[in-house]
Each structure stands twice: as structure tokens, then as C-alpha cells.
Amino acid sequence: MKRLAILFVVSAAFVSACTGAKLVRTPVAKQNYYIVTLEQRQAKDPTDLPKYKHPAMIELAELEKAMGDLTYTEKAGLTSAKRQTPVFQAVEIDRLAPVLAEALAKADASQRIRFASFNQGKALIFSESRKTEGVIFVDADGRLNFAFNYINADRHPSETSAIYHVFSGVDPLQIKSSDTPLSPTAPYAELHQFGTGQQAPMWIVINLDALKQATGTVTAPVGQGTEEAVPAVAPGTGAVASPAETTAPARAAEDLLKEDIRNNLIYLKELLDEGLITEKDYTVKKMQLLDKIK
After folding, report:
1. Which of 184, 180, 201 is nearest to 121 (CA)?
2. Quick one: which of 14, 153, 203, 223 could link to 192 by a disulfide (CB 3.0–4.6 Å)?
3. pLDDT value at residue 250
4. How many CA atoms are closer than 13 Å to the CA of 180, on its beta-carbon side?
């Protein structure tokens, strides 16, 4: 009975907190691997609502760098220790950044952007179906904010596509503890601080002027400097890279893949030698790994 009473009190408090404001979402894009919406909170008293510096025109190169520099402390597993890990995979940034840039340019002063991104994370042998959810907005001080509900959390087997994703009912700006906290490494980014002085583990604030400097997209005043400004990139178009710029990363990624496959093959053989898997299991998994080599 006591547990039931506590549950009732918590539920009543939650309902009471939600009655003053209602979320209204406007879809921007919905694909197999991501979903992006404009999110607006409606309340009885409009003065209680946050005001964002939207619409915000952010260069695609700047947004891609900010997303690429986001790291978090991955929780320890049964066979691994805690480690610093990128929040987004390169493929996630390629498909998600243009849509987020477009959404920031569409949003008004009362809207922030809610997103979810699906990926296939690397595991020892098998890939892991994971998901990341959060919000992005430019605050009244002109700073870019990322706040996450969760980062690379395991997907349920039924979550085969982001099209059917159901957003969390928790406001990421209220999260005060996490087992996957963000780890700011870029000089232009820092964790948000609550009024109590406590750092928000899943909320990072980015100085856009410093980000421009780091990205090299700052335009020099007329008559000063000899370097040409980097041309603006429209959301969704991407920058045109030289053959050397595109070939080197692709080659590095291929080398990493081959090394990963080699390590997995060695581990598979060890499992077979120790009698932990059958010869049939070994052959099947070995062929699956070898099929990944182009």
C-alpha cells in the first residue's frame, strides 16, 4: 500500500507539473535513421515560456564541427571500462546536420528543435542498435545549446526505424544526473550550469563566435586581411571537398574497418578453441565478418 501511495503522489505531481504547459510539435523531417521536429511549449501564462534567438542561420560546416566535437563518457560494460566516445558517428552527422540547420532556420522565437538519431554501434562481434535523443536551440544570448535525454542508448528490438520513434516525456533541460555525461573538450563549449551552480551533465552550451573561429568561417572586415572568407553553405548542400580531402578520410575509415574485422576474427578463433562456440557458429560469423571487406 505504501508503494502504491508513493506512486500516486509522484504521478499526481507529474500531472500537476504538466497541466501548466503543453508541447506542440511540428514535423520537419522523418526518415529511417532520424526524426526532427519543431517543439513549442504552450502555457497559460506566455511570460513563463522561454524565448529563443530564432530563426538562426548557422553555417553547415560550423554545425558539423560542433556535433563532431561532442563527446561523452560511455558507461562501463561487462568487458569494457569507461571511455570517451563521440556522441555522433560521422554518418549520423552527414545525414542529421543539414536537417538541424534547416530546422534552426525555420524555427521562431518560441520553438526549439527536438531530434532523435538511430545508429548501428560497434560491439565486440555484433553491431548494436542504438539511439540518441535531445534538443537543440540558440538561446537569448546567442549561444548554441545541445541538451540530451540519452546518448547511444540501446534500442528495443521493435524500434526498427526512427519513423516510429516516440519522444521522451522528460525535458532534457531538467536532467541533473546521468551515467553517460557529456565531456566538453572543445575550447568553445562548456556544460550548462544550473542556478545552484551544479553542472548539467547532458546539456552543453557553445559560443558561436568561438566556433566560427575554430571552423575558419569568420569573414574578415573589408580592407583587412588577405585571406578569403569561406563561402556560406546552404543547409542540406554540404561543402565541396577536394579529392585529397575526401580520399584520406575514406581510406582511414577502410583501414579501421579492416583492423576491427581482424580483431573480431582473432576473438572468434579464441572462442572456438576454448569450446565456447561451435564450429558452425564460428564459420557463420567468420563469413559475415569477411563479407564486410570490400
Report:
1. 180
2. 203
3. 56
4. 19
Gap between the terminal Cα atoms of the chain: 61
CA distance 229 to 257: 36
Q: Is 142 exposed, middle or buried (0-12, 13-18, 19+ CB in 10 A)?
A: exposed
* pLDDT tens readout for residues 237-246: 444 544 544 4
What are the tens digits of pLDDT across the range 206-236? 999 999 999 987 765 544 444 444 444 444 4
Residue 124 and residue 79 in contact, taking contact as beta carbons nearer than 8 Å: yes
The torsion defined by the Cα of 229, 232, 233 and 239, in degrees rounded to 10, comes to -10
Least confident of 118-122, 132-136, 152-156, 223-227: 223-227
Q: Does residue 272 contact residue 284 with C-beta atoms inside 8 Å?
A: no
Inter-residue contact 106 to 112 (CB < 8 Å) = no
| DSSP, residue by residue, 61-123 | HHHHHHHHT-EEEEPP-SS---EEEESS-HHHHHHHHHHHHHHHHH--TTEEEEEEEEEEE--
What mean pLDDT is reported for the chain? 81
- 526512427: which residue's cell? 162
